[in-house]
TrEMBL record:
Required for replicative DNA synthesis. This DNA polymerase also exhibits 3' to 5' exonuclease activity. DNA polymerase III is a complex, multichain enzyme responsible for most of the replicative synthesis in bacteria. This DNA polymerase also exhibits 3' to 5' exonuclease activity. The alpha chain is the DNA polymerase. This is DNA polymerase III PolC-type. The keyword Hydrolase applies. It catalyses: DNA(n) + a 2'-deoxyribonucleoside 5'-triphosphate = DNA(n+1) + diphosphate. GO terms for molecular function: DNA-directed DNA polymerase activity. Residues 186-212 are annotated as: Disordered. Its main location: cytoplasm. It is found in: Cytoplasm. Residues 434-599 form the Exonuclease domain. Residues 347-417 form the Polymerase/histidinol phosphatase N-terminal domain. Belongs to the DNA polymerase type-C family. PolC subfamily.
Amino acid sequence: MDFHEAFNNLVINEELERAYNEISVEKVVVSKTRGEITVIIKGLSPLKRSHIVSMQSALKGQIFTSKEQTVIIEERYDLSDYLVKNIFEKNKPSILEELNEQGRIYYNILNKSKIDFDDTAIYIENEDNFIIREKLKEISAWLELIFLKRYNKEVSIHLKFREISEKEKEEKDSFTIEEILATRPQAEQTSKPKANNKPMSEDKGKKAFSAPSGFKKKSIPLDPSVIYGKNFDGASVLLKDITEEQRSLIVRGRILKLDERETKTGRFIISIVITDFTDSITCKIWASPEEKGELKKRLSPGAFIKISADVQMDPFDNELTLSKVEGIKETEDFTVKRIDKSEKKRVELHLHTNMSEMDAVIDPGTLLKTLSAWGHKAVAITDHGVVQGFTNALHAKDKLKMNDFKLIYGVEGYVVDDVSPAVRMDKGQKFTDPAVVFDIETTGFGPKNCRIIEIGAVKVEDGKIVSKFSAFVNPKQSIPEEITKLTSITQEMVINEPEIDIVLPKFLEFCKGCFLVAHNASFDTSFIFENMERLGLKGEFTIADTVTMSRVLLPGLKNYKLDTVAERLGIVLEHHHRAVDDAGCTAEIYIKLCELANERFGNSLLSNFNTKEGFDTETIKKMGTSHIIILAKNDIGRINLYKLVSLSHLTYFQRRPRIPKSLLMKHREGLILGSACEAGELYQAVLRRHGEDEIEALAKFYDYFEIQPLANNSFMIENDRVPDITDKEDLREINRKIVSLGEKYNKPVVATCDAHFLNPEDEIYRKYLLWSKGMKDADRPLPLYLRTTEEMLEEFSYLGKDKAEEVVITNTNLIADMIEIISPVRPDKCAPVIENSDEELRRICYDKAYEIYGEDLPKKVVDRLEHELTSIISNGFAVMYIIAQKLVWKSNEDGYLVGSRGSVGSSFVAFLSGITEVNSLSAHYYCNHCHFVDFDSEEVRSYSGRSGCDMPDKLCPVCGEPLVKDGHDIPFETFLGFNGDKEPDIDLNFSGEYQAKAHAYTEVIFGEGQTFRAGTITGVADKTAYGYVLKYNEEHDNIVMRRSEIERVSLGCIGVRRSTGQHPGGIVVLPLGENINTFTPVQHPANDMSTPIITTHFDYHSIDHNLLKLDILGHDDPTMIRMLEDLTGVNAQGIRLDDEKVLSLFHGLTALEIEAEDLDGYDLGSLGVPEFGTDFVMQMLRETKPQTFSDLVRISGLSHGTDVWTGNAQTLIAEGKCELKTAICTRDDIMIYLIDMGLEPGHAFKIMESVRKGKGLTPEWEQEMTEHNVPDWYIWSCKKIKYMFPKAHAAAYVMMGFRIAYFKVYHPLAYYSAFFSIRAKAFDYGLFCFGKEKLLSVIKEIKKVEKRHRNKKDEDVLGDAYIVLEMYARGFEFMPIDIYRAKPKYFQIIDNKIMPALVSIEGLGDKAAYALYEAAKKGKFLSKDDLKQRAKGTTQTAIDKMTELGIINELPNSSQISLFDFMG
């Protein structure tokens, strides 16, 4: 808002009014506790200090007139593009004036200092004495803050103190007593009003943004707990109570995370997020590189600290932050931890880890730490339907070295009862015997508390209805409104009818001598039997259920509701949900089913319906599921469990992975079955009061029964669909009944938690997950946390002390002791076998070596080849090479090059066997004609460490033929380790078009069913979790949280399993004779039942020690080269890698014959060249000016590393400490250099491995490197690196990229056609193909938005637009799309122009483009309607767009012929 508009009643003089004409008000912050009103302003150029002071006074006197309030104006300008020197000198008077307000001594010190500048730094020099040193530290910190916050310019202040002689000291007293006293704010010395008297700070305190007096690192601190700044004491404030800016308070908390950001000045901003579990907050401090290391050590996540600081509104994060930190010190862990004090410990047998999809948040590592602290000896992992938590738990156990702890591997499965008898208590009856088919209507679902309101029945004999029974029943309770809507039975209809004690005996008399038939009989019979028990009536019946009978005889129905079955059998149901009508309909269904059964089974026995084989797959997918706990007792059980999990995902998945009981019974060996939670069969049978025979059958099926805390099931109390549960006593009664069943059937009953989170306070994380799934009851309290033994004993105390101990401790340990210690994965390595692979590999390599180097192989070739073959064959890796060789040769045979990835190009054997094009030998010449070889001439040796293609061309001294230049000088050790025993990882880049064929070819090699896609698990990412919390807060009356608190609570959701997927190219190979379920279950990716792809159920990393994984990846480069070869007839493998015109692309535009102004300022020709076309890499090219292929390889290594270029090699090259050729660019550089410097080779390899993984150097290694004259800059560089690229990978990538660049120079139309077809991300015909001016307007429009605010689509459009702009600049044009000539995906060269593909039309996706192409091939379109009808998938939007673009203007809208068409 404009300043004058914000304070329109302010009366000020003309000069002050003019000064604020270009000023806006960003916001006004009021701090009641500090009595301050801060007006934050923004402008184009800084105001004079006098104008700030005057305006503060005016605002105080006229607007904010309270005596208790101070007015402060904070300035904000964006001067980031200005030189530091210009900013300082222009604003020096105001800076000095502001310092003078703090104290004359500050003014004098800075004013008398010598000040110099460079691009990002200010150098202040003054005399060396104690006062000047201390005050300049404060001034420098204040200046850094002023520049950052006020001017948006990062600077570093460097102080220099010069010595003065004793004589000068005596003659010159720099500062008088008056000046020293003047360090107090002037407002304290006079009666003048304050004018932003903030000693050395932009904000209200004597300290600057972060400890302006400097980080004081004492060798022997007075208080060893002090980490930063000064010692302090006092009570801490709860973070939730911090709601506004405050000065000097103390907080405590646990560190959640620590981030560092290096500023342009070389200093670091360290951000610490702490929580006291009431809220969270961020604390920011500044540190030098030296201070940073010590701070990071002591401020590690998980540590508990106290902080004394101010609370200020951070202008960048726009939230309250701890700043101007006075001190940070260690403190004790103040959290209250639950402990298990019981002498005897329980075992949890029902627990969900974060692999239970979007439903549980328990991290296995944290779980095991907790159980170890509690003294527990075992735990069962029982995730919903999956076993992916097994390997995570095992890894956590191994990491924690909990060798004696027993992990029990199980699953909470979704069981389908496909073997439940259709006929219960069968006594050999036949279809022809008398049967009563009945139905009831009730006031609700619970036989205990609800009542029967109608009984309808018909008697059937010999396939005919012989009599009927119908009666209303007075329930003596209100009929709910929804029941009346369903049944049409009102209270008035039953009020005068007899009660159940009259009706039921009559009904039983009607049933005498008959068996009973009902649809979903368990429900109806539960009410009958409950009322019989209540009335003391006796009776036992055979019961037939027409639902199960229908499933046996009528497979494939969408469901088996009464009306669905009736419709299938042609039976009319007029008044559904009236007992008498439903009974009549069910009777007709029963008669028809008996007729079908007689035909099918050849006899009339009722027992024919009781199948043990289960139902067909589609029927099982439509049946209801119940929960079941399945524990693996031993390794046989583990394999059977994996079989069940595999089949539940591959065959029976429908919304969830289903396990038919018939399947479970076939694979029950080695398994222990538990009855699970309230969603289990047994609990529901007891709750619903099913017949004793049903409960007995279930009791005999399970090995043990479960009961759980009342709170787990208390949701049923409020659930209208569970009317029999009205209070906690009802829940206790259910548990008591289950305990009594255990006693009756001699089955152990165990108390479990069904834990979904570890501690009670963790419930909020699960709420966020459930809410994100749209579950609106997610806020309902459901404390499914892991309880201690004492908590469980207290929970089940209503069973009595002895029984509580039995179910909590004795029986859980009993089950745990029945289970053997097993591993969820096999320990052995099972590589596939290809007969004679050792001999085959050796033969292939030597044949190729002889072909290149002749029969008399050079010693270097033989030595390297034998060294590698010995390592490869002795370690059993030959088969992996042969597999890769077969795949690459097959691809090459089919016309597609294959690029190698990773460090496989380090292997000379890989080169000779055709797996990679990278020859890892040192640079050398050889002659194809006479096999002359030169490895050792002085000229050749001068190319050590470089690529042979960079050497000058030469003729063979023997035969005069041109020599071949080869070799990239890459050590084998990078690939297989220094002892040659490192597991090889052969990654190959196949053409994206060919990838599926390469995958299919693996089955040809190994056999059908022996290969699987490598599975992946997708967990909730940090940004996604953050979004869940935001969504929850927004939909809960916009709960306000600090970002740091959102981050804290979102941490509890991160990593929770969301879905599964597949590695983009990973193929897992199963050796012949092995069963995949001995290693892992299998499934479809993301449980997509429409795909034939089968993946490993475990994340492939969990089993990569067992089974071979091939990385057969899809990549654009081989596809693009294939298209370029097809368009031009040029063999890409024959392209020289030292072509000068191609090399010139990487440092200019001469080869393209255009200027930078033609390309909107781009001054290099590498746009669109793989590896070298991004802004980041192009800037590297400008700074390094590569001249050779070797230089490009080094740049590729730098660009793919992390912290290898930025802030590392870039700085070193700029400072002249190294050149591109001496900088650390790839991981290989380190080992080779250290060996050259005299370090032992194995040790050099070890250092390389540590550095390339970002683990840095040990002090011992640093000392050793120094002793071998390794320069300090090299050691510094090693310590900065987080990840390094292998040279072989870089060389392979650059070879592909260089070839594509060749076509760009020499075959531009082919290049642009291939690029737009394959690599373009957002090519838009309407934006790009209507001339250069239209294109430039598109570019200009996108560039109006700052890069950081652009969306991905705009960035993609911009990237493609510059390639199009380059094409226009080179004089090439597009041909308008002709729908009868255009291809769906590929651009074409026609008449020296490029015709875009159909898919480039906005709104026309891949499928629609192919449909349009196929339709156009069949003939001309009559109209736009005809096009839309024939080209399926072409939307009206796409039709309108094609019309707008002039592509189909000649087509009429409709094919209809009007009378006027025939009139002249």
